[in-house]
From TrEMBL:
CDD domains recorded: CYP90-like
Organism: Quillaja saponaria (Soap bark tree)
Compartments where located: Membrane
Residue numbers binding heme: C423
GO molecular function: heme binding; iron ion binding; monooxygenase activity; oxidoreductase activity, acting on paired donors, with incorporation or reduction of molecular oxygen
Keyword Transcription regulation included in the entry's annotation: no
Keywords: Heme, Iron, Membrane, Metal-binding, Monooxygenase, Oxidoreductase, Signal, Transmembrane, Transmembrane helix
The protein, known as: Cytochrome P450 family protein
Length: 474
């Protein structure tokens, strides 16, 4: 039992550190938003993580304020913003009032350095993050993505032939994970090995579970599993980098993002670079689970609602007939998939891929009549308006027509953020979803086997049984 003593000591030191940081930030602050900081040291972290974030936020909005309240989660005093006004402030207030923030676990898993105290000056050792790197290469711009629609369709068709066609029943959640990561590996890494990709799926799952977990690197904890998964993913990416460097040194031409980043970061020299590895892993992580969840629950809603299925099938069949069998999908084709995209948006409203994001106050400012102290964490609950009858009548009803015409009022639905932090992967997500559904509905009809399947998951929704569906070829 002696081995428990050092583990207990580490845990005590961790709690003590959180306590002193917590106290330093609170003492002397006046006119804070209403709310509770919970238990000493632990705050309300347990309720936040294990009572579903949507319920945690909703209960406190009713009790304290529909706009802003204070709490203490993941070891830090935190202000929760919700509602259109809160969404607008976050979308338009960066970097003057707020800046992007990471959880301690997220920072550690992706080797993200601490920011400077001066929010206008980035740390000297901070390389471009995943979004910045992709923007630099122009990889995620619509005009760049259009050039890859043929490849995306080819990979999509191969995915259906391999995993869907000829099957009576499948678990859609697992297959959407395989599909999304297959595309990420192809375009970001130039990797097209199914066995390797299958292993990476479980690693990325473990990594995502740890991003919003307590930062306790003790065997058996969620964070510990995530840390091991992150190390395994980085190891695989470094091996791929070495192979690419060797090939490009001999004159091989490569178009995947990792190859472009190796050359760009090294000024044309083919050398391994730790920053490139971290950036590509971060980019793949960001493009993984949110797209997977959007596709999974879109399959669920379409399968349960025959009128929605028929409307999508009609739209996609007409589009396929107009472009001919020999023509690839192009930007104009995707723009015509208006109803299909409305279904995607309604899916993300009903079942958001993620419940919110973290920011940090760069200066003390007033909001809603309260003081938001400099340095405090902000949890941006941007989905709090999704099921408000004030903005979405009959909020539990699945109704894609909400997103036809002018759509919802400004800042009432912001699944991709806004302002300087608009998700750079928005168009990539759109391309993948539309091309996947375009092919799925023209190949298969399906029945959801467990319409009342439990939705589990702490920070992201997960169908408990994996969304089993029965397939019928058209």
């Amino acid at each position: 039992m002696d081995f428990l003593q050092p583990l207990l000591l580490v845990f005590v030191i961790f709690l003590a550190s959180c306590y002193f940081v917590h106290q330093r930030k609170i003492v002397g602050t006046k006119n804070l938003p209403p709310g509770s900081l919970g238990w000493p040291l632990l705050g309300e972290t347990h309720q936040f993580l294990f009572n579903k974030v949507e319920n945690f936020v909703g209960q406190r909005m009713k009790k304290y304020s529909s706009k802003v309240f204070k709490t203490n989660i993941l070891g830090e005093p935190t202000v929760v913003f919700s509602g259109p006004d809160g969404n607008k402030l976050i979308c338009t207030g960066e970097p003057k009032l707020v800046r992007f923030s990471y959880t301690e676990s997220q920072r550690s898993l992706f080797d993200i350095p601490l920011p400077s105290n001066d929010s206008s000056v980035p740390p000297k050792n901070l390389k471009l993050g995943p979004a910045g790197a992709a923007r630099l290469m122009g990889f995620l711009k619509p005009d760049s993505l259009v050039r890859y629609t043929g490849e995306i369709e080819s990979i999509t068709n191969h995915h259906f032939r391999t995993h869907w066609e000829g099957k009576e029943e499948v678990k859609a959640y697992q297959l959407t994970k395989t599909f999304v990561l297959t595309l990420s590996c192809h375009f970001f890494l130039g990797l097209n090995k199914p066995d390797c990709i299958a292993k990476l799926v479980s690693k990325f799952d473990d990594l995502h579970f740890g991003i919003h977990s307590l930062h306790l690197n003790i065997p058996g904890t969620t964070y510990n599993r995530a840390s091991k998964a992150a190390a395994a993913i980085r190891k695989e990416v470094r091996i791929i980098m070495q192979e690419k460097i060797a090939a490009m040194s001999k004159g091989a031409a490569m178009t995947d993002l990792l190859s472009q980043m190796i050359v760009a970061e090294q000024g044309g020299k083919f050398e391994p670079h730790f920053g490139v590895c971290n950036t590509i892993v971060g980019l793949m992580s960001a493009s993984y689970k949110s797209v997977v969840n959007a596709l999974t629950f879109m399959i669920k809603h379409i399968g349960e609602k025959q009128d929605v299925y028929q409307k999508i099938l009609f739209e996609q069949t007409e589009l396929a007939a107009s472009r001919g069998t020999s023509m690839e999908l192009d930007w104009e084709n995707l723009q015509k998939m208006k109803y299909t995209w409305a279904v995607a948006m309604e899916t993300m409203r009903i079942t958001p891929p993620t419940p919110g994001a973290f920011r940090q106050a760069t200066t003390s400012f007033n909001y809603g009549g309260y003081t938001i102290p400099k340095g405090w964490k902000i949890f941006w609950a941007f989905n709090a308006t999704n099921k408000s009858p004030e903005y979405f009548p009959e909020p539990e009803k699945f109704d894609p027509s909400r997103f036809e015409g002018n759509g919802p009022a400004p800042y009432t639905f912001v699944p991709f953020g806004g302002g300087p932090r608009t998700c750079p992967g928005k168009e990539y997500t759109r391309f993948l979803i539309l091309i996947f559904i375009h092919n799925l509905v023209r190949k298969l009809k399906w029945e959801v086997l467990f319409p009342n399947e439990e939705i589990s998951g702490i920070f992201m929704p997960i169908p408990a049984k994996g969304l089993p569906i029965r397939l019928q070829p058209l």
